[in-house]
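Render this sequence as a predicted structure.
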Amino acid sequence: MFTGEYFHTFDVKSRVIIPSKFRDELGDNVYIGKGLDKCLFVYPNKTWIEFSSKLKQLSVLSSEHRFFSRRFLSGFTECNIDKQGRLLLPPNLREYSDLKDEAVIIGVLDRVEIWSKKVWEDYSMDTEMNFEKIAEKMSELGLDL
């Protein structure tokens, strides 16, 4: 399970260090792609296979299912984490997520997310999203802390 928040910078070759806490569970090969809210989703192989098998259950006859599958899957690629724990991000994914110099890498249960530091700070401070109020709603759904 992935949890935590880590701050890293990119090197001159557009590589970012994946926190050592995440590396064992991620493995050497990961699937990385366009997530939601301008972040990148990083999945270990096992989780990606489980998720993609669920996508296979979507109906090709449904235009919404086709659209979602195409948009989501076309934004993903398989990448390797090198021996030093660095991940080279493709230019299109860096552009999508506004990743320039600094990244925030967070654990979100079954995946890792990579955020631009600025985008993460703006997202975290979004006044439209009140953490306490949302926590109350989660409690109503039976997700008590």
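Summary. Helices lie at 20-26, 45-55, 63-74, 91-96, 117-124, 131-140. The chain has a mean pLDDT of 92.
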